[in-house]
Amino acid sequence: MKKIFFAAFILCSVLACDNTPLPEPIPFKIVNKLIDLNNFRYQRLKFDGGFVYEDGGSRGMIIYRRSASAYIVFERHCPYRPTDACGQVNVDGSRFFMRDSCCNTVFDFEGNPTSGPAFSQMLRYRASLSGSLLTISN
To answer: What is the pTM of this model?
Structure first.
Protein backbone atom coordinates (compact mmCIF):
# COMPACT_ATOMS: atom_id res chain seq x y z
CA MET A 1 0.00 0.00 0.00
CA LYS A 2 2.83 2.43 0.87
CA LYS A 3 4.52 1.72 -2.47
CA ILE A 4 1.32 2.54 -4.39
CA PHE A 5 0.84 5.81 -2.47
CA PHE A 6 4.50 6.79 -3.02
CA ALA A 7 4.28 5.97 -6.75
CA ALA A 8 1.09 8.05 -7.05
CA PHE A 9 2.78 10.93 -5.20
CA ILE A 10 5.79 10.84 -7.56
CA LEU A 11 3.57 10.59 -10.64
CA CYS A 12 1.40 13.46 -9.43
CA SER A 13 4.48 15.61 -8.79
CA VAL A 14 5.82 14.94 -12.27
CA LEU A 15 2.47 15.64 -13.96
CA ALA A 16 1.87 18.86 -11.97
CA CYS A 17 -1.12 17.63 -9.98
CA ASP A 18 -0.73 20.68 -7.77
CA ASN A 19 -3.40 22.48 -9.83
CA THR A 20 -0.88 25.00 -11.14
CA PRO A 21 -2.65 26.59 -14.11
CA LEU A 22 -0.99 26.17 -17.46
CA PRO A 23 -0.08 29.43 -19.18
CA GLU A 24 -2.73 30.79 -21.50
CA PRO A 25 -1.78 30.79 -25.17
CA ILE A 26 -1.16 34.04 -27.01
CA PRO A 27 -3.95 34.53 -29.56
CA PHE A 28 -2.80 33.21 -32.95
CA LYS A 29 -2.64 35.68 -35.83
CA ILE A 30 -1.26 34.89 -39.28
CA VAL A 31 1.86 36.92 -39.95
CA ASN A 32 3.30 37.24 -43.44
CA LYS A 33 4.98 40.60 -43.88
CA LEU A 34 7.66 41.92 -46.25
CA ILE A 35 9.69 44.92 -45.11
CA ASP A 36 12.13 46.94 -47.22
CA LEU A 37 14.90 47.92 -44.82
CA ASN A 38 15.87 50.78 -47.16
CA ASN A 39 12.59 52.52 -46.31
CA PHE A 40 13.25 55.58 -44.12
CA ARG A 41 10.79 54.21 -41.54
CA TYR A 42 13.29 51.46 -40.71
CA GLN A 43 16.41 53.65 -40.25
CA ARG A 44 16.93 52.35 -36.71
CA LEU A 45 17.45 48.86 -38.13
CA LYS A 46 20.60 49.95 -39.94
CA PHE A 47 22.58 49.57 -36.69
CA ASP A 48 23.16 46.59 -34.39
CA GLY A 49 20.88 46.89 -31.36
CA GLY A 50 18.36 49.00 -33.28
CA PHE A 51 14.66 48.23 -33.04
CA VAL A 52 11.30 49.35 -34.38
CA TYR A 53 7.72 48.65 -33.46
CA GLU A 54 5.66 47.23 -36.29
CA ASP A 55 1.96 46.48 -36.76
CA GLY A 56 0.97 42.86 -37.10
CA GLY A 57 0.73 39.80 -34.95
CA SER A 58 -1.64 39.95 -32.01
CA ARG A 59 -0.49 43.14 -30.23
CA GLY A 60 2.19 44.32 -32.59
CA MET A 61 5.80 43.29 -33.11
CA ILE A 62 9.26 44.39 -32.05
CA ILE A 63 11.85 44.00 -34.80
CA TYR A 64 15.36 43.92 -33.33
CA ARG A 65 18.63 43.93 -35.26
CA ARG A 66 21.20 41.61 -33.68
CA SER A 67 23.69 42.00 -36.55
CA ALA A 68 23.73 42.99 -40.23
CA SER A 69 22.41 39.56 -41.19
CA ALA A 70 20.37 38.60 -38.11
CA TYR A 71 17.04 40.07 -37.06
CA ILE A 72 14.73 38.87 -34.30
CA VAL A 73 11.02 39.61 -34.35
CA PHE A 74 9.00 39.38 -31.13
CA GLU A 75 5.26 39.41 -30.54
CA ARG A 76 4.56 42.29 -28.13
CA HIS A 77 2.00 40.19 -26.20
CA CYS A 78 3.41 39.37 -22.77
CA PRO A 79 3.41 35.58 -22.23
CA TYR A 80 2.53 35.93 -18.53
CA ARG A 81 -1.18 36.76 -18.81
CA PRO A 82 -1.95 37.26 -22.49
CA THR A 83 -5.61 38.06 -21.81
CA ASP A 84 -4.75 41.11 -19.68
CA ALA A 85 -5.57 44.20 -21.72
CA CYS A 86 -2.50 46.07 -20.47
CA GLY A 87 0.05 43.31 -21.23
CA GLN A 88 2.22 44.72 -24.00
CA VAL A 89 6.02 44.54 -24.10
CA ASN A 90 8.05 47.65 -24.90
CA VAL A 91 11.77 48.28 -25.23
CA ASP A 92 12.98 50.05 -22.10
CA GLY A 93 14.26 53.61 -22.46
CA SER A 94 17.78 52.35 -21.69
CA ARG A 95 17.50 50.02 -24.72
CA PHE A 96 19.18 47.26 -22.67
CA PHE A 97 16.04 45.15 -22.17
CA MET A 98 12.30 44.88 -22.81
CA ARG A 99 9.58 45.21 -20.18
CA ASP A 100 5.88 44.56 -19.81
CA SER A 101 4.59 47.45 -17.71
CA CYS A 102 1.48 45.49 -16.70
CA CYS A 103 3.17 42.62 -14.83
CA ASN A 104 6.63 44.25 -14.74
CA THR A 105 8.42 41.28 -16.30
CA VAL A 106 11.79 42.11 -17.86
CA PHE A 107 12.98 40.26 -20.99
CA ASP A 108 16.38 40.13 -22.65
CA PHE A 109 16.75 40.50 -26.42
CA GLU A 110 16.50 36.75 -26.87
CA GLY A 111 12.98 36.96 -25.41
CA ASN A 112 13.90 35.24 -22.12
CA PRO A 113 12.36 36.54 -18.89
CA THR A 114 15.07 37.80 -16.53
CA SER A 115 12.84 39.06 -13.71
CA GLY A 116 9.15 39.29 -12.90
CA PRO A 117 6.40 36.71 -12.86
CA ALA A 118 6.61 35.48 -16.48
CA PHE A 119 8.37 32.14 -16.89
CA SER A 120 7.86 31.67 -20.63
CA GLN A 121 9.83 33.20 -23.47
CA MET A 122 8.27 35.86 -25.65
CA LEU A 123 6.75 34.53 -28.85
CA ARG A 124 9.11 34.93 -31.81
CA TYR A 125 8.29 35.10 -35.48
CA ARG A 126 10.52 33.84 -38.28
CA ALA A 127 12.67 36.50 -39.91
CA SER A 128 14.62 35.90 -43.11
CA LEU A 129 16.72 38.45 -44.94
CA SER A 130 17.24 38.60 -48.69
CA GLY A 131 19.17 41.68 -49.75
CA SER A 132 17.34 44.58 -48.13
CA LEU A 133 14.05 42.70 -47.80
CA LEU A 134 13.09 41.23 -44.44
CA THR A 135 10.32 38.61 -44.49
CA ILE A 136 8.45 38.04 -41.24
CA SER A 137 6.15 35.04 -40.86
CA ASN A 138 4.89 32.41 -38.42
So the answer is: 0.82
